[in-house]
Inverse folding.
């Protein structure tokens, strides 16, 4: 058992209000500079929708992540035989059209316009060319339009949905959507790290944060294509790749990441997970229907004496273990099984998890054109009657396994019924108890879920240990290097000066 620690996050989608405060906080701190104008390390998308960059989930187009070949997984986009040719023209690299052409406004014309009969305006100006442009897209261009056929029809997660389910999402008069905030997933099997021929990308041993060494980066840009979530960006001014660093300078001083600290909806939970790194290769090679359960099995119980002993033997500080015992991420992911990984079929084993949202129940039309009211006699509808089909959520969060999403949503529904019975009294206690039983939970667990979801304090949501940089898990001879692996398929990275 090779015990490692990972700073991980849970996003509770039922609480996200789509305010984009997290995106702006990140933008102002990290990417408000030349060459990074188009970058959004944190962005909030509307689902169903095409996202940013456009259709980033379509790996037939972008070839991100890993694929099974000859019984083993290999990077889709690159390899030792492709890298030289890809540097001249990589077919799987997003273009400016896939992102957007960043712009500002001609405020001088607005402020200094001479007196005239018309109100002057500030026309948009490209931040790339400096010329006036007609804005055609942006990082949240389809915000609040997830139900429209213009954007929803291009969402790759619609695969496998029936025509009736598609029509439920696309009825303009009754839009249905939810928000989907995204940052780097700091994966356990990151494609970006494995693709980098310079060894510039690495995963920190002490906390699992994936970083780019700016001194080593040689602008191969293989990392951008290899990341299936398209969360690595190229800075055209510096000639270096950049990505979300999980605000590690803030973490090292006991502060929450900027996106976390600014979150209005309090949807974000950050904590430490202990996992068995020896199982990464085995889990990443499993069939897609086994990936969710297998990744959960990799996450270790911090209460287990054997796990604690193995962690200490591997150099993990007691304060890290203590934080893992109180981790809200462990509760959501492993204990309650409410949080699910995004697109785990990409086989990068992401360490950012999402609690799926409860969807509204409204009228929809059946195949004959008749109106069908999905209105339950209960206070909270049955999960299978939701406007957002389970298959859509499953395609997004559990590699198409609807049972995983149904389990999480039914448990959330049972908690709501339990709390209504307790606080309002118009639901019988026996009925509430039966709902808890059907959802595989208890009154004690429901109370704990309710408190961490609705009554949580900042300290409940943000639980990390002091950063013991002097006791980091070291994987190289150089004590100043803090890496675990790099290169094609986690081979040893080049030594300094190589």
């Amino acid at each position: 058992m090779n015990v490692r620690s990972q700073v991980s996050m849970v996003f509770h989608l039922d609480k996200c209000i789509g305010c984009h405060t997290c995106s702006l906080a990140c933008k102002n701190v990290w990417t408000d500079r030349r060459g990074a104008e188009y970058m959004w390390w944190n962005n909030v998308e509307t689902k169903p929708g095409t996202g940013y960059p456009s259709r980033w989930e379509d790996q037939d187009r972008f070839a991100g992540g890993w694929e099974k070949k000859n019984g083993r997984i290999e990077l889709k986009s690159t390899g030792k035989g492709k890298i030289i040719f890809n540097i001249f023209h990589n077919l799987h690299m997003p273009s400016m059209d896939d992102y957007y052409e960043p712009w500002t406004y001609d405020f001088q014309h607005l402020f200094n316009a001479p007196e005239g009969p018309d109100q002057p305006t500030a026309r948009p100006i490209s931040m790339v060319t400096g010329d006036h442009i007609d804005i055609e897209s942006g990082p949240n261009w389809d915000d609040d339009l997830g139900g429209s056929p213009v954007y929803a029809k291009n969402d790759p997660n619609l695969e496998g949905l029936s025509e009736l389910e598609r029509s439920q999402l696309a009825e303009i008069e009754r839009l249905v959507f939810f928000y989907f905030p995204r940052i780097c997933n700091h994966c356990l099997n990151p494609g970006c790290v494995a693709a980098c021929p310079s060894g510039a990308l690495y995963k920190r041993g002490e906390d699992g944060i994936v970083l780019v060494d700016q001194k080593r980066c040689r602008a191969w840009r293989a990392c951008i294509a290899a990341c299936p979530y398209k969360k690595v960006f190229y800075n055209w001014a510096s000639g270096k790749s950049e990505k979300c660093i999980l605000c590690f300078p803030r973490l090292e001083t006991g502060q929450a990441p900027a996106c976390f600290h600014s979150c209005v909806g309090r949807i974000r939970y950050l904590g430490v997970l202990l996992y068995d790194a020896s199982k990464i290769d085995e889990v990443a090679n499993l069939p897609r229907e086994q990936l969710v359960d297998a990744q959960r099995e990799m996450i270790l119980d911090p209460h287990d004496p054997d796990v604690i002993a193995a962690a200490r033997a591997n150099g993990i500080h007691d304060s890290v273990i203590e934080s893992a015992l109180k981790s809200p991420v462990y509760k959501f992911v492993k204990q309650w099984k409410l949080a699910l990984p995004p697109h785990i079929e990409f086989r990068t084993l992401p360490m950012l998890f999402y609690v799926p949202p409860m969807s509204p129940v409204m009228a929809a039309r059946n195949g004959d054109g008749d109106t069908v009211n999905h209105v339950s006699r209960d206070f909270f509808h049955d999960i299978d009657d939701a406007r957002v089909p389970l298959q859509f959520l499953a395609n997004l969060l559990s590699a198409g396994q609807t049972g995983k999403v149904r389990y999480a949503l039914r448990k959330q529904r049972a908690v709501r019924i339990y709390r209504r019975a307790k606080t309002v009294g118009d639901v019988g206690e026996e009925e509430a108890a039966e709902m808890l039983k059907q959802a595989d939970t208890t009154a004690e667990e429901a109370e704990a879920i309710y408190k961490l979801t609705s009554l949580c304090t900042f300290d409940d949501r943000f639980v990390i240990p002091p950063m013991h940089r002097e006791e980091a898990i070291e994987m190289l001879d150089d004590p100043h290097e803090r890496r675990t692996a790099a290169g094609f398929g986690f081979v040893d990275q080049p030594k300094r000066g190589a």
